[in-house]
Amino acid sequence: MRPEETMNFNRPPNPELTLGAKRLDYFGDYIFSRLSKQKAKIEKETGEKVLDFGAGNPDFPPSEKLIDKLSEFIHEKDAHYYPGYKAIPEFRDGIIHWYEKRFSVHLEENELMPLLGAKNAIAYLPLAFLNQGDEVLRPDPGYQGYDGPILIADGNVALYNLNEANNFKINFNSLKRSITPKTRFIYFNAPSNPTAATTDINEMKQLVDLVNSVNQQKKTREKKLFIVSDFAYADITFDNYQAPSILEIPGAKKVAIELQSMSKTCSLAGYRIGYAVGNSEILARLSQIKNQYDSGLTKPLQKMAAHALTNFDKDWQKKMISEYQSRSQKIKKYFEKIELTGKEPKASLYRWLKIPDNFKNSEDFAQKLLNEKRILVTPGTAFGKSSACQNHVRVSICVDISKIDNYDWNL
Questions:
Q1: For domain 75-310, is the CATH number 3.40.1390.30?
Q2: Which DSSP symbol is given to 63?
Q3: 122 vs 227: CA distance, rounded Å
């Protein structure tokens, strides 16, 4: 997908003066902005509340212990100072502690950096590594938020298909064929948004081995290929499944970084706290770009995150996971009434459901559901071009379903 293939031509004809940059034409409204507008329109026209299973906005309240600590940190003398660009000592040590304890992975100080949410890195990675015409491979179905920053950096979005027959895991023969000399990095996302697919050590080792083998082909490559593991849903897991880190693979640090988010792990989405770990050279170049755009993650938030990582509230986490899993099971029963089916997720905040065969595509289905039943789901076409995107919808489980019985569940 090249920038010109994504252009939005719905502009006024022959404007006398233009205002925005040409790159704004690379993409239309962000999918969730568009869905939000449709929802508002329906609610205004009908006077009825839409049951919104769209965006994955964690609604389980964060630990009160953690918020109490934040209040304490905000009142410290230096709380209002610029935080600096690196992790403060407490956050640095917290990240190192968490990776040692959770994944048995040792990190050096230059193998980590704070982020204003994981999306902070997704925004800046293309600017740090892409020249015009370079490519980034991302999964299809996959997180649509990867695409915009690639296009802004004059790069091309390349897709590698994940299909239902393979449980939405990587087909390595297909992925290998998709890699070109222009491919700069590969996004890997497990637990997955939107499919909820999980991974294991074997799959990640194959990915690391593939990238290492590509980097041996120095005659056909000018730039090193690397992996960006988007690990935002690392700790939203069910039934004793534990999501592994790509950095557990021996030698992975040579070719990979991993993006972590406190948004899901600690239900702190609005606080915008994340961090990246892994290859120090990649992080150094990412930091070069990031430092031009922001002044770092505020100290009280870094201290709160450090406290969360070193004094993790397991009782709170159990309640959160139990609540999400309970909702997921109830949501499953209701969507089965309208013939939506899917595998039981081991992780993430979504159910990836196949639409009935009598519908042409997921957009038509989602529109009918919204217009006729006041129920909003995200069409699979928001996440890619594959056949799986055409016949699936994503249903968020982090929503209030207390009034789910009030809606008509007959198609």
A1: no
A2: P
A3: 12
